[in-house]
Amino acid sequence: MADFILTTGDLAMFNPAFGLAVVTVIPGNLVGTGKGMINKKLICVDGDEKTVMVPGCPYMTPVFNIPGVGMLSISSLGADQKAKRTKSNNKPVLLKGSTFNARFQVMVPAQQPTPGGPVPDATPQYSGTGTFMTTNVRVKGQ
Length: 142
What we know:
The protein is an all-beta fold. It has one domain. It contains no helices and 16 strands. The chain has strands spanning about 5, 10-15, 15-20, 20-25, 30, 35-40, 40, 55-60, 70-75, 80-90, 90-95, 100-110, 110, 120, 125-135, 140. The strands form five sheets. The protein has an eight-stranded antiparallel β-sheet, with no helix packed on it. The termini are close together.
């Protein structure tokens, strides 16, 4: 099914729930490497999603309620976010689609207060989801 093609400057909007972790999310910016342009912005193609990395996002969990910090990234696209037919530079273009899978990599663990001192969160990463927000409302790919 046809959907809007993503371009440089479009946003990866992460949902704050990452399993038990609640992340203070910051949007990530896409940078296109395709040959074509829409609205004077490069088209995003398969692989461009891997460059979206958002460091410095605080998080906590119900148990580890002293905030920690980590980095958001896209772990995989949804089936409807990669064009089947529309290509640029022999790569499928990226589409707005529904949801992508996201990863939250813990850099500074959240901590649990205890009488003996704070205990750090031992979970190295959490999984979540997100969506794309695009400024392109003209050109669709499929």
